[in-house]
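Hi F.,

I've been meaning to write this up properly since the lab meeting, where we talked about keeping a consistent format for the predictions we share between groups. The idea is simple: the sequence comes first, exactly as it goes in, then the structure tokens exactly as they come out, then a line or two of notes. No screenshots and no reformatting. I'm using this chain as the first example so we have something concrete to point to.
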Amino acid sequence: MNGILYFSSTGNSLDISLKIKERFGGSIIYIPTYDGTGKEFDKLFIVTPIYSYGLPIHVLNLLPRLDKKVEIYVIQNYGGMTGGADYLFYKYALKYGLNIKSMYLVKMPENFTLTFSVPKFYMNKTLKKSRKVIERILNDIESNNYKLPRPKRTKEKTYLKNKQNWHKIGERFSINSNCIMCSKCINLCPVSNITMVDSRIVFSDKCTACLGCYHRCPTKAIVYMNKKKKDRYINPNIKENTLGTDIK
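Output, unedited:
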């Protein structure tokens, strides 16, 4: 059986994972709740967004414990620039002796939109183009047309610096009067950074910049630096209530 390990806060990685499952079968597993080594699978797919030219913290922490013999296929999605994040992932994987068979990149709609907005038509256009890219990637895997990133300059220093400052994003979130105390943000946060204290939502200092709470709040009550931005993003090809869950 194949394992499809994904990290996703707004659905882009889950969207790709569902396509993998349709083609190759297997179980889709949410990385923050997975404590295995991948040894139980014949092939392992890792589907992840690129964060600050690198890896989300949960994906970074996953690599050291993965089985060194299992075949691994990596699909990274991004909204802006990659900054050599594919080679950085590959370099980290080699450090841990992982059996990386192939790696691919897919441009998906940008969701790091705290301080700017992306036109909806451009988001739709990007998502439409991604379908062809994903199909081509799956065809390559099926025909054993494997690809590995060539050595290139990465923005590892920038990534490591940004990663040290991700917690500041959570500290800059606040709740406006739209909050209905549904606790959705508390339940979906992958690092338990959000709590309710004295009937109010409180953000701590463990944020990893996934922005799931920001985009998925049903009343758009979570705001960043008190900005009155109304646009939010959830991938339209997935069922939002399946985000952060395993799909057998």
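Notes:
Residues 120-142 form the longest helix (23 residues).
The two ends are 11 Å apart (CA to CA).

If this format works for you, I'll send the rest the same way.

G.
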